[in-house]
Predict the structure.
Amino acid sequence: MPTFQPVRGMRDLLPDDAEMLTYVMSKARETAELYGYREVVTPVIEPYELLSAKSGEEIRQRMFTFKDMGDRTVALRPEFTSSIARLATTAFKNEPKPLRTLSIGSVYRYDEPQRGRYREFYQSDFEIIGTSNPEADSEIVLLTDRFMKSVGLSNYAFKLGHVGVIRGILNQANVDEKTQNAILQHMDKKEFNEAFELISSEECLTTLKGSLELKTEDVFKTAERIESHVEGYCKAAESAKELSDILKLVTEGGCPVKSVEPAFARGLEYYTGMIFEVYVPELDIALGGGGRYDKLIELFGGEPTPATGVAHGLDRIVLAMQTQKAVPAKNRRKRVAVVPVNETVKAEALRISEMLREAGIVVELEVMGRKIAKSLEDADKRKVDYAVIVGERELKQSSAMLKDLAKREQSIVAISELAKKIAG
């Protein structure tokens, strides 16, 4: 018989890894609750037309697409925002604004597998829909800051930009949208020569090239230089001013913004405004990122509706935690092995196990039919705290033997007192 392995780019999460991932998910949910975001669950499979509409050529090429049995072209979701935009035009159409949503789950892209990059990976996605005010953009950045803190990461930093600055320059030079998207795709990958080859206007080219020289160590000085650089480009100047306003709000909120990038562009085509990413110095991949997308909901048949959001790479956050040795802060429950000495006391061992579970104690009942010595050896290997040995003689006194496996101490304890004794 063949030995099967996961499909390339997919992987099994064994107990320790799964525990870390679910811990990070729980922190995302805690963050959502603090900010008033409510969780929604959307399908893993969506119509291809929905997911491809404004996702960007690079992501379109990496989607898992197929025909269903009704001959419809569908795809595994590569991100959540398109699904939330769909909800905004249907189920949430008449809901009061702003809408604040959280989505958590797996997403799929046919990327080349490497450290921190898989073809099936996990995201938490926060969206705020219905306002164009910079406070909403700032909230998305600040909740990301709080999320990073909550999982114990340190020395992380944010990078901010604004798609409207580049698009404003290109629009004034009458560059069509398709070419703009291609330029932004190249700039996202720092392929600046390839991007500039697509621009015919000398003035536009000079302005864009000049924007690459504006970055300084001082983020506020960089923002000022961007504003000065795009004077005369009306829409770009508005975007630069908006970027400065958001920068001020998030830094006053205590968020560590390390850089403002004049030529920063993210890979998704639907962005229209502020964009950002968050990094740790140990990894060269973003742990999360997002930005404003004011035209996506209208594209899907809804009313013109401004929106902004962020997606966090949960696998990458776990990797960053492991790299920084950030140990999850959680209350570890006591673990107990319950071992019946023979067949006649199995029912009583089951009853004691359930009683301890009612008290919130983790119980592993001996189900392998092993002898006591072997059961205790196994419990030790599993780092179990206590063993409860259920024997006929002790049961006659409504008691059991409690063994502290770390201290190598044992005593006879009344069954009614077991939970109290174990809890300490």
Notes: Residues 15-324 form a domain with the BirA Bifunctional Protein; domain 2 fold (CATH 3.30.930.10). The mean pLDDT is 93.
